[in-house]
Specification:
Blueprint (H helix, E strand, L loop, with lengths): L62 H8 L6 H17 L3 H14 L3 H15 L3 H14 L4 H14 L2 H9 L6 H14 L2 H13 L7 H14 L4 H12 L7 H7 L5 H10 L1 H5 L2 H16 L2 H14 L5 H14 L5
Helix pairs in contact: 1-2, 2-3, 4-5, 4-6, 5-6, 6-7, 7-8, 8-9, 8-17, 9-10, 10-11, 10-15, 13-15, 15-16, 16-17
Length: 339
């Protein structure tokens, strides 16, 4: 398989940030402005779970800090490999090409599965750029060499979501959802797109009640609202209750929750999207248009909902949760009544 991994060399450092511990699988860009969506285009609190390795207070953001971490004897092979790859990135940024090459080589020897993490990252980048089938093909070839490897299977699910193959994506996420909160969070989104709204709420409830670090509660609460709208529950009342139970932060995307709870107009929300720094950094226009659309769905205004969902598709990249959700909702709106 040597030829299969040809080209992983120094260029690989561009594929592996953020180095998401345990999975290497980032998710929604709307959640956190410091992270990368699909390793470059999205990412966030609901997705980039360990964008920069940490040890003690603060981020490890210098070569000496990484060296101190690497001196710890209790590091797992996965953690040590990730740190070595991160040090390679820092060395490359500093112009130390030869040291970066040595770090990459050592990282791959320390944790041989890193090459599959790199391939998963590469596939996500390809898919986010619109090359979804080549991305699937890349993952499939890697899975022949490393059958069942979690990050590869989850990546395949993400790309299938981008292709609109929701049932296949759901099957991929379900393979690891019982033991991995990243996969469970993605499965909740696949349940929504697949029309399994109760199951989606069950996964979101689990993440909320377990205090999972996969996402801040406000993000899970917002997606619970979307599913409750489809279940024809009192979505607004349940959202208000959730905000009391799990807290209502001041920062973005809390204004979306305030709009959905009836405490802000859609015009005020759009102004916030254009003026709030965090909203602008995290592509808030995308997420806002989706939830404004879901508010019109709740009210039964289908024509306006269709316009807003199409706007969501235009505003959001194809790797964005809201793009997936809007595409699925538009499919449902186009079906004959009763189906």
């Amino acid at each position: 398989m040597r030829g299969f991994f040809l080209g992983l060399g120094a260029a690989a450092v561009f594929w592996v940030a953020p180095l998401a511990a345990q999975t290497g699988v980032p998710m929604d860009r709307d959640w956190d402005p410091i992270a990368r969506d699909f390793n470059r285009h999205e990412g966030g609190d609901d997705g980039a779970f360990a964008a920069i390795p940490r040890g003690g207070p603060g981020a490890i953001n210098s070569l000496p800090a990484v060296d101190r971490e690497l001196s710890r004897k209790e590091l797992t092979a996965k953690d040590r490999g990730n740190l070595l790859m991160y040090r390679a990135m820092l060395n490359l940024a500093a112009g130390n090409q030869s040291q970066a090459d040595r770090d990459i080589d050592l990282a791959l020897r320390t944790d041989p599965t890193l090459k599959y993490d790199l391939l998963a990252s590469r596939a996500r980048d390809m898919a986010a750029a619109g090359r979804t089938q080549p991305a699937i093909d890349l993952v499939e070839r890697a899975l022949q060499d490393q059958p069942g490897y979690g990050p590869l299977v989850t990546t395949r699910g993400q790309v299938r979501m981008m292709q609109g193959d929701y049932a296949l994506a759901l099957a991929d996420f379900s393979q690891n959802a019982g033991t991995n909160d990243v996969a469970r969070r993605l499965r909740a989104q696949a349940y929504y797109t697949n029309g399994n709204f109760r199951e989606a709420v069950d996964d979101l409830d689990y993440l909320l009640q377990s205090g999972s670090s996969v996402s801040q509660p406000i993000h899970l609460v917002l997606w619970r609202y979307a599913n409750n709208v489809k279940l024809r529950r009192d979505a607004r009342g349940m959202l208000t209750s959730d905000l009391r139970s799990y807290g209502e932060p001041a920062a973005w995307p809390a204004p979306i929750a305030r709009f959905l709870a009836g405490r802000m107009t859609s015009g005020e929300l759009e102004i916030t999207v254009e003026t709030d720094a965090a909203a602008k950094r995290s592509d808030g226009r995308c997420l806002a248009s989706y939830f404004i659309a879901m508010d019109t769905v709740r009210q039964g205004t289908q024509a306006r909902a269709r316009e807003l969902l199409q706007l969501t598709q235009a505003r959001c990249g194809i790797a964005h949760f809201a793009h997936w959700a809007a595409s699925a909702e538009l499919r449902r709106l186009s079906l004959p009544a009763g189906r």
